Amino acid sequence: MDGKSAMKRVGAGVIGLAASAAVLVGCSDDKSGPSPSPSESSQSSAAAAPQASTGGKTEVKVDGADLAGLDLNSVTCVKQGGKINVASGAIGGQQGLGIVMTDEATPVVESLGMVVDGNALAVANAMGAKSGSAEVKVDGDTYTITGEAVGADMSNPMAGMITKPFTVTVSCS
Question: Is the pLDDT of residue 39 over 50?
C-alpha cells in the first residue's frame, strides 16, 4: 500500500467516524427520570409511537443539480422521541442521505450526512462542535433543508476540505 492510498483510507475513516458520531449523538436522548409504572407505560407508548412516512415528495440537489444515484422512492421520514429522522437508500450503493433534526416549530438540523460522487459530506451541530451549515423551513408537512455540507475529496484528500451547497425537500407526515 503506497502513502497516498493509506492517506485516503485514513481520511475516509476519520470522516466516517465523525459522521457516525454525529448520527449517534443526534439519535440519543439525554432525558432521564423515573421509570413509568406498567399502566403508565402502556398509555405513554401509544402516544409516543413513531410516525413514519415513505414515498412522499422528495428532492435532493447538490450544487444545483439532482443527486444522481439516490433512490428517492426509498426516502423514509420517522418522527419519534422529539426527533425527525430522514434516510434513503441508494441505487447501486453509491449515494445516500441521512438527516437528524429536532421535531419542533423551528427544527434544527443536528446531523446530516450524504455521499456525493464517492465523497462523504456532512453537517454536524452537536455538543458545541459544528461543521457545515443547515437551515430548515417548514410548510405544512414539507421540510426544506438548505445549507452547505463539508467533507474531504477522496480523489485528492490532501487538497483539504470541500464544501457543497445542498437543498433537500422532503414530506414528513
Answer: no
